[in-house]
Batch of 2 targets.
Target 1
Amino acid sequence: MSSTVLLHLVTYAAIIAFLLAVVIRFIRINSMPMHLRWELYPVAHEPGAKARYGGSHLEEIDWWTKPKESSRINEMRYMIPEMLFLVALFEHNRKLWLRSFPFHFGLYLLSGTIGFIFFGAILELAGIPVTNGENASIIGMGVFYLTQIIGVIGMTLAAFGSIGLLHIRLTDPDLSDYTSANAIFNLVFFIVVLMIAWITFILIDPTYQLTRAYIQSLVTFNFAAPVESALLGIEILLSVLLIAYIPMTHMSHFFLKWFTYHKIRWDDEGYTPGSKLEKKIFQQVQYPVTWSAPHLKADGKKNWLDIATEEIDEK
Amino acid sequence: MKKRVKINDVSKPTAQLTCVDPSDQPPFPAPMDESYTAPEWKPLSEKAKDQYEINLDGTLVLSLPKPKNKEEEDELVRQFLSGLEKLFTKENNWTFLQPMVLSMENCARCQTCSDSCHIYEMSGKNDIYRPTYRAEILRRLYFKYLKPGGKFFGKWRHGDIDLNWQTVSRLAELAYRCNLCRRCASTCPIGVDNGLITHDLRKLFSQEMGIHPTELHDNGAVLQMKVGSSTGMNPLVVKDNIEFIDEDTTDKTGIKTETPWDVEGADVLLLHNAGEILSWPENHGAFATLFNAAGISWTLSSESQEALGYDNINYGLFYDDFMLAKVAIKHAKAAAKLGVKKIVLGECGHAHKALTVIADRVLTGDLNIPRESAITLMENIVSSGKIEFDPSRNDFPVTLHDPCNMVRLMGIVEPQRKILRKLCPQFREMTPHGVNNYCCGGGSGFALMSGHNFEDWRMQVASRKKLDQILNAFKDEMDSSIHKYICAPCSNCKGSMRDIIHYYDLWNKYGIGYGGIVELIVNAMVDVKPGYIEWEMY
C-alpha cells in the first residue's frame, strides 16, 4: 500500500474517530439520569435585567401562577461572547486569558480555514478556480484570499497561545502541580502541528492549493492522487491525528461545555405534573440502592424512594 | 518563602500536612491596625490528640478516631473505594451523577476558581484550601481506580496519587474546609463545579462510611426527625416559646400579637428555622407583627413526627442526599396536611434552597406545594401600601449580607434591596455583593461547628473575608457610638455574624450589630412603638 493511500485511509479513519468520539461522549452524558436542580445565577435565559444581575423567577410573588419567561436573546448575549472571546476567563483570570484566548480563537480561525479549503476544493471540482489570477471569479478570489488571511492569523494566534500556555504551565507554581505529563504532551502536540503548518505554508503551500488538491482527492475518493510534498503529508497526518485525539481528552470541553451550562448551571426546569421530567424521576426513585452506611440501611433490595421515606431509628 | 503543599503530599505519612500561618494571611482591614493580633488558636486537648486523626491542618470537624492497626486502616480505605465506585453509578447517585461526571472529566486545572475562594485567599493562599485541591485528589482517584486502564495510564494522563489511610482521612476533613458557596463554580470558564465535588465527597463519607459531623447528623437531621427540630424542641416546648414571644412582642410593639397554630386551609404555612425561636425570638415576633398587620392568612404547624412543621432546617443538603430527601418530604407533608396554599420560608438560606430548588424534582404529586421566600412576600407587603412606614426610624448605617443559598443559588437578589432602599435611608452595599457576594464563613453547616479549635479556624480563615467586607461597608462611621446594622436574612449567616462580632469584639469597638430583615421592617412600622430593634441586646 502506498503512503498516499495510507494517508487517505488514516484521514478518513481520523474523521470517523473524531465524530464517533463526539457522538459517543455526547450520548453517554446525555443519557445519564435526570439530576436534581443545581442551578447557579445569573441564569442567562432569565428575561430582562434579571439575566444581568442574577435574578430569577423566584423573586416574583406567587411565581408558580405566572408564565415562566425565558429569553433566547439574553442567552445568546451571554453565550456568543463567551464562546468567541472566553469572557469568563477574561474577567477572572486575565493572565491565563492572554494565552488561552489567542489559542482558542486561533483554533476557531483554523477550523474556518479548513472550511474554506474544503469549500474551495468543491468550487474547483465544479470548475471554478480558486485563485487570484487574471481570469479569477469573484467567489474564487474571495475564497482564495479569505483562506489565506484567516489561515495566517489562525496559525499565528494558535501558535502564540499554545507556546504561551506551555510556558505558563511549566513555570507558574500555581499551575505546575496541576499539570500532568499528558497536558504537556497535548500542548506540545499542538505546537508541533502548528510549527509544521507554518513551515509548510511558507515553503511548500503558500496558497493552500496543494491542501485543496488533497481535499479534492478525499472528496472524490481518489486515493491515488499524489500528495506533492512529504512535509505536507506529515502535516496532514499529524493534523488529522490531533483532530481525532481532541474529543478523547479533557479538551472535549469544546462541546461538553454545552452540558455544564445548559443542563446544570442554567437548568431551572421545575417539577410539573405529567411531564417527561416526572416520568424520569418516578423511574429513577425505583433504582435499588447499595450504600453501606448504617443510617441508610440500604441492602440492594430497597430502592431510593424506600430509603428516602423511611424513618430514622438511630440511637 | 511559603511552603507549597503538593497534591501527592496528601498521602504522605507526615504528622500534619500543613497549618494556617498568620504571617501568610492578608492583614486585617482598617481600623483593625497592624497592632491587632488575632486570638491564639485554642490548643487541642490531649484527649483529642490521642484519640482523633489530626493530620491535616491542626483543626478538626469530624473527630475521626485513629484506626487501631493496619488492618483497620485498610478496611477504611476499602470502604472509601467502595463509596467512590457507588458515587459514579446511576442507581446510587442519580441525583448528581451527570454534573459530577462533567466536573470530574472537564476541568482544565486553570486555577481560575482558586482566586475566587475566600477560604483560599484568607488562609494566605494555602494550597490545601484551593477548590481544586480536594477535587483534584478525587479526580485522580476516579481516573486511577474507576476508569479503564487507570492504574497503568492514570499517572501519565492525570497525575499521580496514592490511596491510603492518610489520603482518606485527610480528604474527609478537607471536605469540611469548604463553605459550598459555589463562588468558585460561578467563575469557572468551563462550568466545572468543584463545590459540587466537595458536596459529593461529603456524601460519599456519610452514605458509605457513616462519617459526618455530629452537629449536622446526630444533633441535626436525626434529632429533627425524632423530636421535630434540631433545637430539641418538641411541639409543647415550641408552642410555649412562641406564646412567650407573642407576649413579649405585644409589650414591645403595643400591638396584640398572636401566632396562629395549625390553621387548616390557611394561605401561608410559615416555616421558620427553629433556631430563630430560641436565639433570635424578635425575628418571629416581627414576622407575627408584620403578617397580622398585613392581613395575611397564615399559620405555624406543630407537626413533629410524620411531618415536620416548625423547623425548616435541612442539613442533609450539606452532606447526605437521603437525609435531605427525608426531611424535605416531611416538610411538604406538614403543608399538605394543613391544606395550605403555599409554604413561606422564613429567613434561612439553606432551607430556601433545599425545599424550593434542590428537592423540587422529588416533591411530586400532592407534595409539590408551592414554596416561596419570605423575602419576596415581605417585599410585596412593604410595597403594597397596606402598612405605613417611617424610614427615619431606621436612620442608621445598614449593610446587607447576601446569603449564598438564597442569592447566588436561587436568584433572589432584588426584593431584599427594594425593602432596604425604601426603609433604610443609610443603606449601603458590601463590595462585592449580589451573586458575587462572599460567604459569611458559616455556610454548609460551619455556623454550627465550634468543636475543638474549629471556631478559631472558622473565624480567622472562613469568616475573615466577611469581616473585611463588613468593616469596609462601614469604614466612614467607625465610631462605636454610631450603631450600625448588618442585615443578614438567614439564620446560619446570622449565627456567623454573631460569632464574628463576638470574636473580634465589633460591637464594643465599632458599634456593629446585626439582625434579620423583618426586624428592620417592623422597626419602621408607624403603628409599632418605636425601638423594635434593641441595640442593648449586644
Target 2
Amino acid sequence: MAMVEAMKRARVGVISAYPITPQSPVAEKLSEYVADDSLKAEYIRVESEHTALSCAIGAQLTGVRACTATSSVGLALMHEVLGIAAGCRVPIVMGIINRALVAPWSLWCDHQDAMAERDSGWIQIYAESVQEVFDYMIYAYKLAEHEDVLLPAMVCQDGFFLSHTAEIAMIPDQETVDSFLPAYISKNTYLDVNNPMFINNLTPSSEFGEMRRQQKDGFDAAKAVAPAIMEEFEQAFGRKLHIVEAYRCDDADVALVTIGSMSGTAKHTVDMLREEGKKVGVLRLVFFRPFPHEMVREALKNVPTIGVLDRSAGLGAQGAPVYVEVKAAAGDCGGSITSLVGGLGGRDISVATIKKAFDHLYAVHEGRADADEQVWVDVRADYNELRRKIGGND
Amino acid sequence: MLKQQENATTQSVKRKIYFGPVATHVTDVDTGAWRILTPVADDEKCIRCGICQKHCPLAIIQVDRETPFTVDLRFCKGCGICSQVCPKDCIAMTEIGKGGE
C-alpha cells in the first residue's frame, strides 16, 4: 500500500493495471481511491498487462503521469511494450512486486521477473523496506522525468515479504510531496492533436544505432543526477536514500552483496556475527539499473572474500545476474567473488540462510572451498529426490 | 461530447530535436516512390461505379459522374487492388508513370 500512497501523492492521472498476485492489492486500492474521488484519475479496466502498459504509454504521452504495476508473468507479458517506453523515452514509473517466473508455477517472491528485463532500458531500483517502497517511488518520478534522463523506471519490492507485510512508514502530506515533485510536463515527444507528431515510426539502420546510443546517455545522466536528487529528497522529507549502501564493509574480511528485502536480514546477521568477532559486512544494491559499478568497486576493492546473494538463478551464465555484474565491476581487485543463489520461489531468506552464506564464504576465505563454484545456499542436497516415482521399482 | 483534458502538452518543454523515433513532418512519406506498375483506366469502358475508389487502401482515387479515374501519383504504391476489383476490367497496371523517378 505504500506503493499506492506514493502513486496517489504523485498525482497520477491515468491508471491501467491488470491484477496479478501479489500486485493485486495495488490495483484494488487504486480503484478504491478513484471511486471515492480522493485520487483524481481515469481508471482503465484493461484485459491484460500488455494493454496496461500500452495504455500507460499512450496516456503519459498526452502529458499526465501514468500508473501501472505488475509482477512475474504480468511483467513478462509486457515485455515487448517495455521497449517502447524505453526507446521513445517515456518516463513511466512502474511498480514491480517481485515474483518468480514460471515454470514451476509460483506466486511468491523471486527476482527473476525483473532480472529478465535488465536489458529493457528501464531504470531498476530495489527497496528494502516498506518505507523505502514509498520513498523510492516518489524519488523515481523525479529521476525518470529529469530532462537529461527521460527513462522509464521500475521500483521493485519483494512479493509478500514487503507487499504483504505491515510496517510503520512515514507518509508525507501532499503539499510536501508537491514541493519535491511538481506537476508532470512532457520534456520530449507528446501527443497533441493541435501539434501532431508521429511517434515510434519505422527507423532505418542509418539512424537506429544513434537512437540507441541516446538511451545510454540517459543512463549515464541518471547516474550523474541521482545523488543530487537524493539530496533534494532528504531536504524535503528528512530521509537519506542510497544508490548502494555499504554496511560495515570498511574492514571486512568477508562481505555479502545483497539486493531487496533480504538486505535487512543480512545487516542484522552481520551485527550478530560482528558480536562474535567476525569481520563481516554487507553491500546492499539499491540501484541495479544503471548498475553503479564504480561504487561497487570502491566498496569492495579491499575486501578479500566476497559473495553475491542473488534471488534469481540466471541460468546458463557463469553465475547469477547480480554476481555477473559485481564480478565485472570488482573481479580484478584482488578479492574472490562467489555466486550464491537463494530465496527462490518465495523461500524466506532467514538469519539462518545468511549465516549459511557467511559460513560458506568463510570456507572460501580459509581456502577450504572453491570461490568459483556457485552455491545454492538454501536448496536441499537431496534435491533430485523431492518428487519420487509413483509405483515401479526405485 | 468527450471531456478533453487541459492541454498539458502545450506546456511541454519545446525541443528542437527530440529523443527517440519521431517524425514531425509527414511529407517524408511519399510512398509513390515505391511504385513499380501504375494503374491506368480506359475511360471508354469505365462506368464510374466507384468500386475502385472504395477499395483503394490509401483512398487516393477520385472518380465520380463528373470525374474520370484519377490517382494521386505522389502516394500510389501500385498495389493493383483497383485493377483487381474493377467489374469492367478497365484498369490496367502499366509501366507508364513508374514511381521513384
